[in-house]
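Field reference: sequence -> structure
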Amino acid sequence: MQTVIVRCTISLTAALQHGTRAYVSVGALRLASPLPPHSSGVRPMAAAEAAKTTVEQFTTASNVAFKDGVEKTLAALNEMNAHSKQNLEAVVASVTAATKGAEALGAQAMAFSKSAFDNQVNAARSLAGAKSVQEVMELQSAFAKTALETYMAEMGKMTETVSASMKESMKPLNERMTAAVEKLQAVR
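Structure field:
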């Protein structure tokens, strides 16, 4: 700030000595020094007062511009912090939903494995108790058909679980992306 004031003072002093008008710009504010009277009626005190007034106006305008810039920067940083916090919360919500989906899928897989094992043990017992080759073929065919139908039904349930889990885990991220796009469109 001192360098700017010194340069303004030098510029104003030179303008006063040569009888020209000096201009100093700060942002949208343009300050002009008054023209001094010509050499015959020079009033050094009036010229010094004019220079002092111009420097004070420049200093005040500079301080206001600096303060406004700092306030705008701080507001932008606070908004960015809030946006980052919301993004982090969305990621946490997404991971939580994905974890719940994985737990549900794991529970379904364990239940299916246990049920399939029990069915295989029962089928083996039935096959061991068969009296003829014909009966073995019928039991094996019935077991294979039932096992395949059960497997296909279970895969359908697991697909639904994975799909629901993906939707739930992507929902918070989609909301944040939508908010970001809306903000960018509002800025345009």
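Note: The longest helix spans residues 44-128.
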